[in-house]
Amino acid sequence: MWQGCRRPPRLPRKVPLCERQVDTAPDDSARSAARRLPGLWGFASAVRQPVSLPPPAAAGVCVCLVVVLCLSWVPGPCLHRMHEHSRVMTLRRKSIAGSGTGTARLLATLTASLLLLLGLQAAPASAQVFCDQGHSVDGAIWTEYTQTPGVQQSLGCPTSDELGLPDGVGRRQVFDNGSIYWSPDTGAHAVWGLIGQEWAQQGWEGGYMGYPLSDELNNPDGVGVRQQFQQATVYWSPASGAHAVHGLIGSYWGEKGYERGFYGYPTSDEYSAGHVGGNVADNIGVRQDFQAGRYLLYSPGQADAFESCQNGCMGYGGTTNTQWVKKTEVYVSLRDSNLSSVHVTPTDAAFATVNPAKDSAKDHMSDTWKQVWSNIQPFPNANQTRTQSVYDQLLCHADFSYSDPRTDGDHFGGPTWDLEAWRPELTGDNDAKLKTMLSSRCNW
Prior knowledge:
Elements: E1 19-24, E2 47-52, H1 55-73, H2 76-85, H3 93-96, H4 101-118, E3 128-129, E4 136-137, H5 139-147, H6 151-155, E5 163-164, E6 171-175, E7 178-183, E8 187-192, H7 193-201, E9 217-218, E10 225-228, E11 233-237, E12 241-245, H8 247-255, E13 271-273, E14 285-289, E15 294-299, E16 313-319, E17 325-333, E18 340-346, H9 365-372, H10 384-400, E19 417-420, H11 430-440
Helix pairs in contact: 1-4
C-alpha cells in the first residue's frame, strides 16, 4: 500500500486528552505577595484550571488531529494508492490530491471543526461594529469586551474607536460606562465605576499606579471588590469607597490580613501628615486611614524624630476617645523591630493636677492601661520585661504630668506620653526609682 511513498510516523497509542486553560474567579489562596505591593501586594488576579472535554468531543478532537496530520504530510499519489488499496478510505483523488485546492479546503474545514470541538473562538478577522454606532472593536480589546464575563454588559456600547495613549505605548477604547486599556506588558483590561474614578484621580496609566493588571475581582469577604494595577491595588466596599493601597503601608496592611484583618478596608488614600514619627512640626510623614478609627503611618526618618523613627519607621495608631486616652500610636524602626515605642495622647482630664479633689489618669491606672490598648495592637516582641517597662513609664507620666512652669500651657513630659519599649525595668528602692523617673523625664 505504501510502496514508493514515505511511511507516515506512527502516532502514539494514547493521545492526551485535549484541554484548554480558562480564567476563573480567584479564591483567597490565590492572593500572592505580588498581588498587593512591593514585597507585599500583590494583590492576585485569577487562577487557571484545566477544563476537560466530554468523551465524545475528546474523541472527535483526536480523530480530527489524526486526519489533519495525515493530510498535511501525505503527498497526492500516496492518497491515491490509499484509495485503491483500502476499503475504508473513500476519498477520491480528484477532490483531494488534484490541484491542491481541494486539500486546502478540506484542511481548513477540519481545522475549523477542531476549533469548534475544542470550544475555542478566535478573534474576528476584521473589526466588529457594536450597537450600530459606527465604532469598531478589534484585537485584544475585542477579546476583553466580548469574552470576559460581565464586561460588555457593564461597559455598554463603544463611543470611540481605538485610541493611542500619551505614553506612546498603550491603547484604549472608550465605552458608555468605562474604558478598556491595553499595553504589551499588561494585556487588555476594563476599568469603570468608582475604581476607575480613583485610578483617574491618580493620573491614569501615567500616574504612579500604571496600567491595570487585572479586571475587577470579588473579595473573599463577599462584600467588596478590588482591581490590581502595576504599582497598587484599588479596594472598594459600600462603607469605605474606593482607595488605593501600595508601598510599605500596603505591605503591612496585607500582612495583617487585608480587608478581613484588623484594619478592615482603607477609608482614604495615602496623604501627607504632620507629627508623624515625632512631636515637632516638621516631622512630616505619610498616613492612610482605615476602618474603626485605625490608621497606618510611615516616616522616612528625621534627626529630631522619636528615637525609633530617626532612621525611618512604620507606625500604626488608633483613636480611642476614652476618658483618659485620645489615641495611641506605635512606631517600629525599619532597621530593628526591637526599637519600638508607644506614644499615648492623653485627654485633658488625664494630666495630673494639684487639685486633690480632681481625679486624673494616675488614680485609675488599670483603666488607663486598658484604654491605651483598646483600639491598637501590641508593640512587637511584647514580652513580660518589655511590657513592664512600658507600664512603668506610663505610670511615671501619669504621676508627674503636671503643668510645666517653664512653658506656657505645656505639661511635664510633653504633649504625649512617650513609652520606649527598649528601656530596661527600673531597679532599686522607691527613692532610686523616683530619682531615675524625674531625671529622665520618665524616659530612662
